[in-house]
């Protein structure tokens, strides 16, 4: 199973949102990482076939998805950033409604609704109205509706935005569980969402592909570029912030400890430390963080 994105470009007016993207996906989780405005949502909408590209094509197992038409849409499960839920519907009723829209028979819907509610941990709450659910529970209803048609390609856009840490962990563990026989595309700007579950990380910036590698290889490229510097005088900190990308600043017994991302050693007393994905984000998106 493969999904090939070929020379994909999208233009809105005079703004080029995506610039000649070439990507290939196979079974597993792919984290699409980028700041707001990087083109993540536009890419997801095009792959989900709810938006047409200005140029380029997408192929599923070698077949152009525009020719496949409804056959391709039947393979898609899509959870947009803002999913519309009918607040007066119970979780069970809402999923039955979506199952009907997706063309499932009553018999199929009964089985799939029960199955997906159990998968997302909401079967015991199935008779409650979704309007009373927490943000995390609503996102779980969203992923349940996306899974009703047993999609081969699952697309989730910023699924953990606004969720507390516990719900974020629950959600990413769920995605990891269901990715064994699917292509899962996870768009986010929260690096911890993809650090442990992504097969590869795709980094987009201003609509361009910057990197596409496994998290391990991306972090290996950052070795000797992340440093720890301890300063005894807080007055020294602004000078480092002006000259370098400073991530964390932590007060310790030895002084103020700065975590600095730099291609060169920022101080004779700097010590190289193990990079993480937050460092990677800062390395590519320091302007957005600032």
TrEMBL record:
Residues forming coiled coils: none
Domain of life assignment: Bacteria
Record-annotated ABC transporter domain positions: 3-231
Pfam families: ABC_tran (PF00005)
Gene Ontology MF terms: ATP binding
Entry keyword set: ATP-binding, Nucleotide-binding, Transport
InterPro entries: AAA+_ATPase, ABC_transporter-like_ATP-bd, ABC_transporter-like_CS, P-loop_NTPase
Homology family: Belongs to the ABC transporter superfamily.
Protein name as annotated: ABC transporter ATP-binding protein
């Amino acid at each position: 199973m493969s999904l090939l994105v070929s020379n994909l470009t999208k233009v809105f007016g005079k703004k080029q949102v995506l610039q000649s993207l070439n990507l290939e996906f196979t079974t597993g989780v792919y984290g699409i990482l980028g700041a707001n405005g990087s083109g993540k949502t536009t890419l997801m909408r095009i792959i989900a076939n709810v938006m047409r590209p200005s140029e380029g094509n997408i192929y599923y197992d070698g077949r152009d998805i525009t020719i496949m038409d409804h056959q391709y849409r039947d393979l898609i499960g899509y959870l947009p950033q803002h999913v519309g839920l009918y607040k007066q519907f119970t979780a069970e009723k809402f999923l039955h409604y979506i199952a009907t829209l997706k063309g499932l028979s009553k018999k199929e819907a009964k089985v799939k609704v029960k199955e997906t509610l159990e998968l997302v941990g909401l079967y015991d709450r199935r008779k409650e109205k979704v309007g009373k659910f927490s943000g995390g529970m609503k996102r779980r209803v969203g992923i349940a509706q996306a899974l009703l048609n047993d999609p081969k390609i699952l697309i989730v856009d910023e699924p953990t935005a606004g969720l507390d840490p516990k719900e974020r962990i629950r959600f990413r563990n769920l995605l990891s569980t269901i990715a064994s026989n699917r292509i899962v595309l996870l768009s986010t700007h929260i690096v911890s969402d993809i650090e442990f579950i992504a097969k590869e990380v795709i980094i987009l910036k201003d609509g361009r592909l910057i990197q596409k590698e496994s998290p391990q290889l991306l972090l290996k490229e950052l070795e000797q570029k992340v440093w720890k510097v301890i300063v005894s005088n807080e007055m020294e900190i602004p000078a480092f912030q002006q000259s370098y990308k400073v991530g964390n600043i932590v007060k310790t017994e030895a002084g103020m400890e700065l975590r600095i991302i730099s291609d060169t050693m920022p101080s004779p007393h700097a010590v190289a430390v193990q990079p993480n994905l937050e460092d990677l984000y800062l390395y590519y998106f320091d302007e957005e963080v600032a």
